[in-house]
Amino acid sequence: MLDIKFIRENLEAVKAGAQKKRMNVDFGALIKLDDERRELLQLVESKKAEQNRVSQDIARADNTTIRQQLITEMRAVKEELQVEEEKLKKVMGPWRELMLQVPNIPDMSVPEGKDDADNVMAKEWGERTSFTFEPKDHIAIMKQLDMVDFERGVKVHGFRGYYLQKAGARLSWAIWNHAQQFFLERGFDPLLVPTIVRKSNLYGTGHLPNEVEDIYQTQDEDYLIGTSEVSTMGYHTDDVLEKGTLPIKWLAFSPCYRREAGSHGKDTKGLIRVHEFYKIEQVVLCEASHEESVKWHEWLNRNTEEFIESLGIPYRTVVNCGGDLGQGQVKKYDIELWVPGEKTYREISSASYFHDFQTRRFNIRYKDEDGSLRYAHSLNCTAIPTPRILVSLVENFQQEDGSVKVPEALVPYFGTDVIQ
Q: Which residues contact 35 (CB under 8 A, 6 or more apart)?
């Protein structure tokens, strides 16, 4: 969330940021409501001050008649205060709703564009895999090797259901174990997080209100997370951190759930787009400095690039355009893996920084050297998701005899160097 004072003082820049992100916000209505809010706040504070004055006069009064007059005056002030507080309450509801719609301002380096088709390639690594035989897609490969069962998945779960089994399950565990060692060596602390959270946590990260159709809700009006970033940020709600503890670096792991409501007709087969999956997430809290955010953003994204390189899968990194940024993101990179079966790249990771957009909502602050409180900056980046990475892995490492070569980095965790 942006500070209302910042919005008012930089209104044109905030409007331009919303336009770059292709997000519609009624700033005129927001400013009008904020004018009403500020006026009512002044009235409420004035009435509270008057109430305190009369209360002190009552305490000092030694004349019964005067005391009674003051008590009558107190009742009148209290009634007036209640009226103004009720007016303020009615204004605060729609004011908060509009404030939650205001997006963060994207960085100047973010390219213009409407959607992911306008993202700009920043780098490309590895040669796109070529074959001396007719390659298969991951569905055919994994079915032939008995690594997956989609039919039973649909029977038990429904549309987009799947079972990873035997070598498919073992390969997922191998990836998790390799990722754990790889990322923990970079100074992260491990965290296993709740997957059922209160609504406030999704508002805190900015996933609500804009992504409501893609989020599963329980009968108790709680929500299932689509990324462990949500629970990890919620972990620090209302924290006042010591500056010396920054940066805080979490490696969070959880099941994740997405309804994929906005992707009707897309990727209806296979493991590209499923309702439930697992994800290891990098989350960082750092000092309130743009330079610090940029530094850690590059570091987080490079961590995942190096992890992909350790597996030997060709990839490219793109800078997301304004129209492909989320509400709170200042800048985002996507890492996309080469998928031979589709002859295209597919997203596997996103790295984003938010400045204090999320930490204001969660009230996560730290104490500076002079004792003043500042909102920390937050960042996150996918370490690795499963089962999506299996798509690129088995397609790139398929062999002519139908087997799949296991990447060297995974062999110690998988146990053999080939799946057949």
A: none
